[in-house]
Input
Amino acid sequence: MPCPFCNIAETKYRLLEEGDDFIVILSNPRLMPGHTLVIPKRHILKPPEMSATERKNVFNAILKWQDKITDAFSTGCDVRQNFRPFLKESPIKVNHVHYHLIPREFEDKHYYIVDKNAQTLFEPLSEEERIKIEGIYLK
Output
């Protein structure tokens, strides 16, 4: 499957901003009205592969557009980046790093489908688990 983010011409009708090394587009498909993506222009699989300049410019675009979204929708805004190479690419799963900016409001559709059940997913961090994970991370 060709990368849908590498051909900017295909996203022009959704383009909100274009910088030297990033684009900002409306997500299609989208989770909520105003769902926006910030995408490095260079094909990159995960954030550590970005250059320092790309990281700076992409992060600044994220902050700028998060403010625009919260001002325009008078809401909150989730910022998310997923790295799931174990999933097959699809219209909602693209192997090119990108950041989702998702407008949120109190008890919105996303809340009733996802967030409401999140409380049952969170578990306390045990001392044994903390030690094990620190050992993996801090090798």
